[in-house]
User: Fold Queuine tRNA-ribosyltransferase from Formicincola oecophyllae.
Amino acid sequence: MAWVAEARQGQARAGWLHTAHGTVPTPTFMPVGTKATVKAMTADAVRATGAGVVLGNTYHLMLRPGAERVAALGGLHKVMDWPGPILTDSGGFQVMSLGALRKLDEDGVTFRSHIDGSPHRLTPESSTAIQHDLDADITMAFDECPALPAPKAVLEASMERSMRWAARSRKAFKARPGYGQFGIVQGGTDRELRLRSIKALVAIGFEGYAIGGLAVGEPQAEMFATLDYTAPALPEDKPRYLMGVGTPDDMLGAVMRGVDMFDCVMPSRAGRTARAYTERGALNLRNARFKDDPRPLSPYEPSPLNRYSRAYLHHLFRTDEILGPMLLTWHNLAYYQRLMRLIRAHVVAGDLEGFAAFLRAQWALGDWGRAEWDGRPDELRF
Amino acid sequence: MAWVAEARQGQARAGWLHTAHGTVPTPTFMPVGTKATVKAMTADAVRATGAGVVLGNTYHLMLRPGAERVAALGGLHKVMDWPGPILTDSGGFQVMSLGALRKLDEDGVTFRSHIDGSPHRLTPESSTAIQHDLDADITMAFDECPALPAPKAVLEASMERSMRWAARSRKAFKARPGYGQFGIVQGGTDRELRLRSIKALVAIGFEGYAIGGLAVGEPQAEMFATLDYTAPALPEDKPRYLMGVGTPDDMLGAVMRGVDMFDCVMPSRAGRTARAYTERGALNLRNARFKDDPRPLSPYEPSPLNRYSRAYLHHLFRTDEILGPMLLTWHNLAYYQRLMRLIRAHVVAGDLEGFAAFLRAQWALGDWGRAEWDGRPDELRF
Assistant:
């Protein structure tokens, strides 16, 4: 696995991520396929939105269908019909979220399945082995992610354990051409801890670096402030992945601070709850004002999605038809990919600052008025 | 609208149905798109299975989104992105099923919406006008469908009212090139009533004739016995539609008795409950024996559906992922269309009897064994 820069503007980077299952332009948004499916989408349709990498979740997949079963069936790519690269998380974050169902020790985490209460254990070694069985192009180091805010002593002890786990994860990882493993920077919103974490990870050496422990409820300004000193401290020649982020505005700000990769359930989850992301901000399709609106969601909607009127989408959600979540998930993922392609193009063109100002101004304007829509200049289309 | 025969074998007919929105080979199975969507499918995907006509339900569509709204949005074809022909039912059957919520009189039916209890009324005239607003290629006459079994006097009174309503429906229908209206034969399982009903409808004159009041819980043998005298009494040069039918075996038997058109929620509903129709009968994908089965559902599965293993489908249903219903609905509709294409080809070839025996023998065999699957002759593929 390798990441190659194509262009830089300020901290922002446009590059190419080469993996065993293909090359992906960065910055890139990775749709989340928790249980071996991006919810309400065929893999074909995900691909058609322009997605390069999809995510799988170790915690969910180890419970069902089971990593050995996935391996016997030919690996996660074959099982879920996704021929492109796959990134799997380590299970650490999700196991931590189990609360009373899990017990942490220096060696790893013992937990009970949220499905049937059966006992399981994850360690840096077993998490890495599971991700190997799943055939992940990008394996994540097993880490601990404390809730914010937390006292520095808690953040420090947790970060240091994560770094010991990172070293064990690295030792357990089987290097193969086109495959790679990312270490995860921890340390909360503490600059000194973040920089120590980076130093520890770089000493171990990974194919890429993730920024963990953000997007856990803190304000955007705090996340950006943390990125301001974290991202530039990471190796210049490796991909950088901000875990669990985010809104279009979050991603734009993070790219401008040097991040290359994102994942988030937001566009797919929003799609299932009638929320559509557009160039003019988010629309709630359950709103009665869409009842008779013959327009597609956006003048930029790619065919074949622009065949559907807002009125029809409103109807589908009002009648609880499965096609509603199907179409709106599709729309949101297509919007996220369109946004990342454009941001990348403007990094390459060297005018990202201007484009960012344009994007933010458009988001702030709110939905297109009917007159404005009908009179829209063609050059606004992309 | 016109129906043209291409070939006949015994009572079975292969033909072409010409409509304002395209020509469809018959016999044909029409997927049900109750609320302006075939559940869990895009219209594109329905089209790709080979479906020619889809069905819309007047009762559901008049309540939501409303027929006038559909008309203002450009008609049902445009709203649901289905460019092919659409058949709408009259609302009669569904209003009758409301039980205590409806009140029947000679002029029509007053009923309360099952959604919000609001009062509504359907008459032959209003049902026909609603179907006109929806832009249905095939409008159904408004009729009453009594539950079976029923005393002859009840069947007779109901049939005679339906015939008076058929005459009023016809009078309300606006003839346009490519559009047509079907009368509905009633009379339960009583031969004399069925023949009187046909006589009355033919005297009125329709572009096609439907056989109603069957598939309401009676044994298959009784349905077939009714078809044996009903279908041959219908005009030879008009299409014949058996409403609400059915299983693959029901449809095969009905084609052999002279039926050209079918609709049923079975393949789509089954798809949402993990039931898959195959050349070897139905499979329940929730069954644990599919947990590690790497095969597609059937060796005849059309690409791209054969990319998915039974193990993956089992996993999707076990984890309640939306993709499970999506893929299995797709599979079932594709199987139904494949079956109808083959039945039609064998009518044209003149060997339907032999093919029917082959189909029934295959259904009875049950799922393919692994050895049998691996050694299957290529000529079995279609």
